[in-house]
């Protein structure tokens, strides 16, 4: 093979010098060797014309055949030797067929080691071998491979590709000096006549010899479904509809179900699926005339039902195009029949089971996975806008996620998770295999008299090194093997437990994530999912990433993607602040303090600020910060605006960590956080606060969380700022909020406390505050109760001057309504005076 590429005289002489030395040729001159080289090249290795010498010397041939049987492990040598043997034997002989058969199934040359070592000369030999394999194949060989080549020709769209293909064909056919234009013309003719998928050419019949061979194969190929599909398609394409041969193929294919067997599905490639689609289309459109209109082969309908839902998108696309062509001819008859089959086979589980087999049998099922398996279904259901459907979905989500024991997941040790991530049969805790130091020095104590101390230390070190080498090589002692088996058994128990816990949590969390992404309003109403489950589970080594995905769904509601990537920055930063065990890889390199400062800066730029010109806003901000700390002690409620309700809900876990007394963050970050609250929550930010209470009111919840929020808000009616008191009353003016809390709350003290505070506010010295309080009192359908007597006296001795004044007016009005309570009021007043 090296001779054939030796173009220069120097190269050929150099090669022949080696040959001469091997043959004991003495004093061979350069001119003589050159002459011999030219003769060898012309007679045996020229790719342009055949030489006279076809047979090898008997001894050499015998040696080559011995090498041929043993050279399979060396692909490049196998290629060269196979080419030499094919060139030295006549096509059709037993030896030629023997080489041909062995080469036809040999794939060693495609291995990584062969490809990496392949030179240009080796590639030339590979080309020559491939050419001879195609041109000199035995007559009895199946034409199934030719159908594969046919498919490759059909996708050669460009002139360059077709010319390249035909150049090879021209060489095989001894076409001399074929020009590109001539080859292009031939290529167009070949493609139009035999391989064009767009229109039928003139050549419909196969050569007689090939056709007879194909029919023989057709009768014997039933056990190979994929070959049966390809061969049936080829025969249907080469025969006219209505002929006996066409009907024979049609009848056999119409009842053939081998392609739906597990073995066929596991071996089916995308090209095989394409052939299956084409065959199904021809079977439907070219039914025999005797077949009644509207009746279709059940196997074809079932096949199309599977192919329309095939995991690979290209197969689905091609199936859809085939379906369009069928409907254009068959119209509603076929649509009705196919819809009935799809419904039936989906309901009975056939479609699902078949497609699962396809995914499980392929090496890379991830390439078939459609992202967001829950998302599309839930988005569609929510988009129906039926409250009953939405409520049922949320009820299912809340019930499922409530089954998770958050504390148990958080307590899972990291070591157990690492064991779970370690593949079955591999030992994670290799520390148990460490060699015992006492075992290493066991014999040394008895031999201490025979060696010096230095020699003993050297031998101990040598034994340590030998032990470590054996450990790395996997050579274990009997004791170590026993320990390893016990440890593997322990790890298997842990792995099975972790797998069970992960599978249970992964489905529930992913359902919740998809539902949050589908129904934003419902998600923000149910913030307990965020604070009770999502945030704590981010601290679980097992499901931290799943919980982070749920958090990102909430984040996407509050902070849609923008050009400044604030959404991604906040998602990563908040997870780091709250101590999540999973982090976003691309954002984790930046120091946390730096990321926090950037986040707060961007947030402050977004929060709109309206200057008030007084100090009321500062007090209001500090008051509301304290209010949030108490109101959000267990859970949180919802806000909405630029940096308001929804945004503060998502930011709350980070804000709470930063402002907590045990915060590890510096004063600059704490001050920036307070500035954010100052910018976002001020006296002109009433809309967000009104929406907070309004949304809380829509939940119709009268539990401790809502009562705590209302009590904290009512406490600010004692504030010196009249603006703050007025705004607080407006916040509490959500329809029937206080009425529901007073009548239905389990906290009996809250009802009297609420009535007293609102009643005292009706007598506020500021007219606007008093008017707002009166509107709230009558809108809530409140009435004075006798139990209000003693709390009113407590207000009369308040430390705040305007509260004492307001309480005095309220007490006078109370006495007019309940004059019989005057003695009790006087007794309480005397008691307070003595204190």
UniProtKB/TrEMBL annotation:
GO molecular function per UniProt: protein kinase regulator activity
One annotated GO biological process: regulation of translation
Coiled-coil boundaries: 462-515
InterPro entries: ARM-type_fold (IPR016024)
Family matches, as SUPFAM superfamilies: ARM repeat
The entry's keywords: Coiled coil, Repeat
Domain of life: Eukaryota
A GO cellular component annotation in the UniProt record: cytosol
Designated name of the protein: HEAT repeat protein
């Amino acid at each position: 093979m090296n001779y054939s590429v030796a173009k220069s005289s120097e190269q050929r002489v150099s090669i022949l010098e080696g040959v001469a030395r091997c043959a004991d040729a003495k004093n061979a001159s350069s001119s003589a060797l050159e002459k011999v080289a030219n003769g060898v090249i012309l007679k045996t290795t020229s790719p342009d014309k055949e030489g006279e010498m076809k047979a090898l010397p008997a001894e050499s041939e015998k040696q080559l055949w011995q090498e041929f049987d043993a050279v399979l492990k060396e692909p490049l040598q196998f290629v060269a030797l196979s080419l030499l043997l094919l060139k030295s034997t006549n096509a059709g002989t037993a030896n030629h067929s023997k080489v041909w058969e062995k080469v036809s199934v040999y794939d060693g040359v495609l291995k990584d080691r062969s490809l990496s070592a392949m030179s240009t000369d080796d590639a030339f030999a590979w080309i020559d071998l491939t050419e001879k394999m195609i041109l000199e194949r035995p007559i009895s060989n199946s034409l199934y491979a030719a159908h594969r080549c046919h498919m490759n020709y059909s996708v050669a769209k460009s002139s360059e590709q077709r010319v390249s293909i035909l150049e090879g064909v021209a060489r095989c056919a001894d076409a001399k000096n074929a020009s590109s234009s001539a080859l292009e013309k031939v290529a167009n003719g070949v493609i139009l006549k035999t391989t064009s998928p767009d229109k039928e050419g003139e050549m419909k019949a196969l050569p007689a010899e090939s056709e007879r061979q194909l029919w023989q194969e057709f009768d014997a190929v039933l056990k190979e479904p994929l070959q049966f599909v390809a061969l049936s398609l080829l025969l249907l394409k080469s025969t006219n509809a209505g002929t006996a041969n066409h009907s024979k193929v049609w009848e056999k294919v119409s009842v053939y179900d081998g392609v739906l067997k597990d073995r066929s599905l596991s071996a089916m490639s995308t090209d095989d699926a394409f052939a299956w689609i084409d065959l199904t289309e021809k079977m439907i459109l070219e039914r025999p005339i005797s077949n009644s209109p509207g009746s279709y082969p059940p196997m074809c309908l079932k096949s199309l039902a599977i192919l329309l839902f095939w995991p690979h998108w290209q197969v689905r696309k091609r199936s859809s195009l085939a379906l369009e062509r069928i409907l254009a001819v068959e119209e509603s008859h076929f649509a009705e029949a196919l819809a009935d089959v799809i419904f039936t086979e989906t309901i009975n589980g056939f479609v699902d089971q078949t497609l699962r087999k396809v995914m499980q049998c392929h090496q890379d099922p991830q390439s078939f996975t459609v992202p967001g398996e829950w998302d599309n279904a839930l988005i569609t259901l929510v988009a129906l806008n039926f409250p009953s459907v939405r409520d049922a979905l949320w009820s299912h989500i809340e019930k499922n996620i409530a089954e998770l024991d958050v504390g148990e997941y958080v307590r899972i040790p990291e070591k157990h998770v690492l064991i779970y991530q370690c593949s079955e049969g591999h030992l994670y805790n290799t520390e148990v295999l460490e060699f015992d130091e006492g075992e290493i020095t066991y014999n040394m104590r008895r031999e201490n008299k025979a060696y010096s101390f230095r020699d003993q230390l050297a031998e101990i070190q040598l034994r340590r090194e030998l032990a470590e080498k054996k450990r790395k090589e996997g050579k274990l002692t009997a004791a170590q093997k026993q320990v390893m088996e016990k440890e593997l058994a322990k790890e298997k128990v842990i792995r099975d437990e972790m797998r069970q816990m992960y599978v249970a949590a992964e489905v529930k969390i992913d359902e919740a994530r998809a539902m949050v992404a589908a129904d934003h309003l419902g998600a923000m109403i149910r913030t307990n999912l965020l604070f009770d489950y999502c945030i704590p589970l981010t601290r679980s080594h097992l499901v931290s990433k799943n919980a982070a995905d749920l958090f990102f769904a909430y984040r996407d509601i509050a902070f849609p993607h923008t050009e400044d990537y604030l959404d991604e920055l906040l998602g990563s930063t908040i997870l780091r602040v709250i101590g999540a065990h999973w982090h976003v890889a691309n954002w984790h390199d930046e120091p946390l303090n730096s990321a926090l400062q950037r986040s707060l800066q961007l947030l402050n730029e977004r929060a709109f600020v309206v200057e008030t010109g007084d100090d009321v806003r500062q007090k209001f901000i500090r008051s509301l910060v304290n209010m949030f700390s108490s109101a959000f002690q267990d859970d949180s409620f919802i806000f909405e605006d630029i940096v308001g309700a929804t945004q503060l809900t998502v930011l709350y876990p980070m804000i709470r960590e930063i402002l907590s007394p045990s915060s590890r963050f510096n004063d600059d970050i704490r001050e920036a956080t307070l500035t954010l609250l100052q910018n976002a929550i001020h006296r002109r930010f009433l809309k967000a606060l009104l929406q907070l209470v309004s949304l809380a009111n829509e939940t119709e919840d009268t539990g401790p969380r809502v009562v705590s929020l209302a009590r904290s808000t009512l406490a600010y009616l004692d504030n010196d700022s009249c603006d703050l008191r007025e705004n607080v009353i407006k916040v509490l003016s959500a329809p029937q909020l206080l009425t529901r809390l007073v009548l239905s709350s389990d906290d009996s003290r809250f009802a009297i406390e609420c009535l007293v505070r609102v009643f005292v506010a009706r007598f506020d010295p500021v007219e606007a505050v008093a008017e707002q309080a009166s509107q709230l009192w009558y809108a809530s359908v409140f009435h004075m109760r006798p139990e209000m007597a003693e709390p009113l006296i407590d207000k009369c001795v308040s430390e705040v001057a305007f509260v004492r004044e307001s309480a005095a007016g309220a007490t006078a009005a109370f006495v007019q309504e309940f004059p019989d309570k005057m003695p009790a009021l006087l007794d309480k007043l005397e008691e307070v005076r003595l204190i």
